[in-house]
Amino acid sequence: SSSDSDSGSGSGGNALVSPSGAAVAAAEKKRTGTGRQQQLTLTAAPAVIDLGGGVTPRTWAFDGRTPGKEVRLSVGDTLVAEVSNQLPDRTATSIHWHGIALRDDMDGVPPTTQTAVRAGSTFTYRFIADAPGTYFFHPHVGVQLDRGLYAPLIVEDPKETLDHDDEWVVLLDDWVDGVTGTPDEVFAELKQGMGGMDMGGMDMGGAKFMLMGAESDLLGGDAGDVKYPYHLVNGRVATDPDVYTGKPGTKVRLRIVNAGGDTAYRVALGGHRLTVTHTDGFPVRHREVDALLVGMGERYDVLVTLGDGVFPLVALAEGKDANGLALVRTGSGSAPKATVRPKELDGVITTASQLRAADDVRLESAKTDVTHRIELTGGMDKYNWAINGTPFDMNDTEANPILIEEGQRVRLDFVNDTDMWHPMHLHGHTYQLGASGPRKDTSIVLPRKKLSVFFDADNPGQWMLHCHNAYHGEAGMMANVAYR
Ligand code: C2O
Ligand code: CU
Fold first, then answer.
1. Where are the transmembrane segments (predicted)?
2. Which of 27, 221, 290, 411 has its CA at a distance of 20 to 30 angstroms from the CA of residue 371?
3. What is the CB < 6 Å shell around ligand 1?
């Protein structure tokens, strides 16, 4: 219906015209809506949240909880979400609907596609969810997602034939506790020069020190005796986990989302193998695996048929020797220790590149109109993460765009020139890994490796391409993909 293509509005009131406004409108017409609307309000505000186990940090959250309340739509429905910014200290915010190919003025990326939502004001997002799948949402300002501002977004397909009895959303997060300032302040300190930092100094602020520790761990360094203190599954610490209760034999669809800012997880369910069915919302040829590597911003749907007993769902933090935990309870038995390591974690850890797109969503890679080389550059010493050597400039966000044209089949060659790996996320589109790999919008590019992806330029506008390590992205490993 025509009202579905109305643009959102904010109390700021300024309509934004992107350079390709007419093309955006044309692309929007192609989206077929059901005409149904779901309306909600999301209030971003300081809150004391309960992570279980007596852990009750004061942080920022949507409607007083982390994760925020799940949003669930049917494909074709219009979401009308009013965000009310009650954050302190004149902190502006936005919401990015991670993975959804919507119109760019609803994509939540200030200042490129909207004006940031000022403290004390509201903004209404309105878009048609035109592809089913597992998504999440978070602010696209600073590293606000790392304070707990995130929630799952599920788009159901009423026509889907996937055989299952129930589902369980599994949201992973690395928790930076004890942050006195905001992560944005932490980040500012990081950017000012990690190189000259005295690792032993106690006056540097706990949070920065923790981030250092986490990053050092990823590098395999030994400075990592200070770590993210908690890894959360569905907002619960491992000593007081979330529990899925069901009957033996139930076929459950797990929708696994990594909302962490700085941590990839190896995910396994003790006593079970996982059948992978979707990557970032798109179907793959089903594949049974022991465990999955889930990078920041990635999502996997898997099926499991539950055994009889009590089973640990473990999210092992990559390089950090710590884990998140949830439990599946279908029978009697005692709960495992919080640090349990199911043997499935010793099996093959499957990554996206080992999967294949389902036949009906596979792109033919033979036809490529243009190739862009996306070099991932920088290092820990200077914390100068960038794309093609130029850090993204938040004050000049349209500089150095990667230019594409509507109708092109675009190939991106990610070339990782660094010793860390980077989950690279493209807004507004899904790409395919290689000639027959899965469709995704976020994929890990391993150190010193190359990854080629393909997508159809079918959604005119301006779109971010960035590392979903929140700190790398903010440091400048981000670029603007713009339609000519
Ligand atoms: Cu989930 Cu540009 O981000
Ligand atoms: Cu990165």
1. none
2. 27
3. 96, 98, 138, 140, 297, 425, 427, 464, 466, 468
